[in-house]
Target: mevalonate kinase
Amino acid sequence: MTRGSSSQSGGCAHTGKRQWELSALTLPTSAEGVPDNRRSRSVGIGRAHGKAILLGEHAVLYGAPALALPVPQLAVTASAGWSSHAPADAGDVSFTMTGSASRPVVTQAADGLQRLVTEFKKTTGVAECPHLDVIIDCAIPPGRGLGSSAACGRAVILAVAQLFGRELDADAVFDLVQTAENVAHGKASGVDVAATGASFPLQFTAGTVRELRMGAVGEGFVIIADSGEFGSTKDAVELLRGGFQRVPGSQERFVRRASKLTRTAVRDLADGRADDFGKRLTDYHELLSTAGLSTGRIDAWVDAALAAGSLGAKITGGGLGGCMIALAREPEQGREITRRLHAAGASQTWAVPLGRFASHAP
Model:
């Protein structure tokens, strides 16, 4: 299965805590100056969702596999429309997060999204057109390793494509969103782009997506806890690369260990060995923590989750802040783990039931 098989975003319900309330902002719908034969509609809508990396962070950039879980509770919706009242310095398109008509997307994210729209126009042959206004309703907290930038990019490109009446296949969506991700992160593996459009857990290796086989996982949950600490994936990648350059052979050892843990975890999941899979999570956390990618707060939360009965726990995403995940065998255990994490200071948590994915196993 190629990466394209995971690009269907679906219409996932937005049940997580919103980061920005919907405002009374009215999307411009004027298409003045746009010929009818180049205009399909006055508003385009695109959707995506968050993700959590189970295993494979950082090593995936060096060709190792990574395992990712879609998080449909964390939804993103983008609305794209025409505008005849563009700010003088706004370029071809303006981006606004819901909650305030004057709240722009942060500069780094806006740069990537501007590049995304520019590449879309080149790819699809769209000529000059009036200014576009894009409004993004994103429930994914930024800088937490949950795929905020990739999900926003995916939602935006789907909205713009619908606005222009252009059909994009899965590979085209992937390649376009990667352009924005490479601006945001310096070098992006592509796993976030794939996972923010997937409807199933996936294994991502060097641009190829395979559906992750889930065995008898029963009523298991992955609990995601937000530390409230902003983590920069770009800084984390550079930190790890710098360590590799200073210590000969460290890159090979890191990637070899990460690959072994991830591939073993794939077999554990396929065979329904939840306890063994949990151990791989904790072992991978130790690998990332030793490399300096965790934080004292998240290390303490991993210990708290394990003490509460979690089968395994680890930091998730790029590191240097962000979120951690913990594996619970059943709902009651999940509630206790969640209680402990909130007591330890988690600003918010989400639970993703693994059982919902069991039917996808071949």
In short: Confidence is low (pLDDT under 50) at residues 4-39. DSSP finds nine helices and ten strands in the chain. The first strand starts at residue 43 and ends at 55.
